[in-house]
Request: fold
Amino acid sequence: MDIHKLQEIVHKTRDARRKQTIPKYAPAERDTLIKKYHPDFRESAYRPIKFGPNAGDKTVRELAALLEGDSPVPAGQDLAPAHSCDVLVVGGGGAGCAAALHAHAQGARVILATKLRLGDSNTVMAQGGMQIAVTNEDSPVTHFLDTLKGGHMKNDHDLLKVMVEEGPSIAQWLLSLGVLFDRDADGNLHVKKGGGSSKPRLLTASDYTGLEIMRVLKDEVLNQKIQLLEFSAAVELLSDKGVCTGAVLRDLDNKRFFVVAARTVILATGGIGRLHIQGFPTSNHFGATGDGLAMAYRMGAKLMHIDTFQYHPSGAVYPEQLIGALVTEGIRSEGGQLVNAKGERFVNELDTRDVVSSSIIRECEEGRGIRTMSGRIGVWLDTPLLEVEQGEGTLLKHFPAMVRQYERFGINIAKDPVLIYPTLHYQNGGVKIDVNGESQVKNLFVAGEASGGLHGRNRLMGNSLLDLMVYGKRSGLTAAARAKSGSQGKLTLDHVTQFRGEAKKHHASADVVSPMLFPAYAKKE
Amino acid sequence: MGDINKENVIDQEEVLHPKMVTVEIAGKKYDVPEGITVIKALWYAGQEVIRGIGCLGGFCGACATYYRTKDDPKVRTCLACQTAVQDGMSFSMVPPFPARKAVYNMAELKDPKQDLFSLYPEAPLCRNCNACTEACPQTIDVREGVWRAVFGDFKAVSEMFMDCVMCGLCTPVCIADIAPNLVALYASRAQGAHFTEKPERLEHRIKEIADGKYRDEWTRVLKMSEQELVKVCAELK
Reply:
């Protein structure tokens, strides 16, 4: 059927829906819904990890294979260092840049290595905003409780308390660098309400919050003349009696390995969207392949909550070119409603992401979805409603990135609703860290999405940007101080030898090599 | 996917009438499915892309591309992840351009509007050719932005360039060797760091935290059992 015919029901039911309120789910109902429909509970997608620090724990098959995977570095590799430094930061997104800048400010010799360009990351795409409790009606404690509720009470309390308390000073730091957050008429920071939050707390820069932060941090890394190694992918860590001492990288232009000796290493390698777990499309950048998890795991760092992932409720389903791309949650924050094929709402749009995603999957599985000829399915997000409620031009004013993205493919979201379905968005867990970002391996730090514990089993919208800045900073500061007081250890692959021994004992598949670095999209025949 | 009403299926031209089109990638012809994005066309042609790929969401500016459509002499620009291919299209990804970025210490600038002329002395030499504006895949009025920066209207620059993905396509076309995106980034940062009010409420909150205003509440909350916490959380609306 013509898409406009199918959209008619959304237009027709709009007035009636406007007056309708849908309560959020009570905890018990929420759990039932999630257990029945959330992809985290699809047993067949999971298996136990065979060996290593998380032996016996279940995770998705795609990740388990990479964790058990072999190192690409041969045992006899020459380990003479090409570079040496105090702090090696792996990853050039928000957490990596924050870590590098703070370590550099302490006088540490910093190298920032990234497999793509500086700034290529998920951070740059973050649209919704950054949660920081700045208003009089709000407090860091309320922020803490909201996050805990969203995370199913499984969040590490210490990590979380630090994040919410350091939020305001992080905002101040970013402002001092020139980040332009939206303001109220009186000059105070404008706040929006995010899904799963009891108070408006999202600081935003239009719907380009991540881009704005990333532009500034990138520029600052260049101003500070921090040594950069772009198109250089970390593929293995180096150790001296279990302590991290550097990394082996691959120059992606000439494919050669080279070694960086580092007193401390900070992994800021981000998430796993490009593993397309359970076949889901993803909102993630091209390099989101969980490299840090595989490298840290081989060295003996424990991971946590790696059985839980966030499926962002509103990934684009139509047109085909935008599949997986995000339709920002901001649209729902501003009143955009989700509507099934019968023209009905079916969830409070501002419930937590796991609840909203589960309910969309429920609608689709129970026959109230809208399909596309290429075999996708979804529900409507009533974007024109924002224009009706808040006046013509609202979408263009508040969501220029969104309007632009659809406009390129001939769709006017101010006039027509868009079709959405959950898209693989975020790795809730990761490498277990302490409040300074250090993993269980000495001198190996992890910051941002690659780390785990802070967000529990479901990250609250807007908490990722804050996580990146706070733990980027803390890991950077701690690593710099550690480097100052310590010395450079030996560069060995002893942990790899040991890991290979374990792998052999457990009959791990010999043909999986990790980290993966990039998805294999190029057609080979 | 359950029993879905057959009527709830959106027509898709590419499924109804699948069609291959011929495109020219860096001078070589390939047949690819009509309507896929430029980046997917590269993959379809069997090419690995490492330089020239990033977020795949239209935000990072890594995939800046020149293209031309059939029989049209005009060479246009696009982001490869955000543009659909059509028959007869020719395209090439843009290699990194060695533009000069000025190095500055944002906090220590005394007079950022004047400093623009020492950091980017080429900025006022714009010859109004408008090529930068035409090259912008984000449809920013780049030329106007450069002039606004030169005249010290940093606020306008910061608003105009909020959409800027730093793809740098405005730079190689500039006959005055200006890197407009870098000039705009400087002006925007200066606007934020030097010409924007300090948010009072934020400063107040930082002081409250430092003064231990929340200490008792933290003690109370952190002592709670999980059950008590669940109850408190359930009351948050």
User: Anything to note?
Assistant: The radius of gyration of chain A is 23 Å. The longest strand of chain A covers residues 257-267.
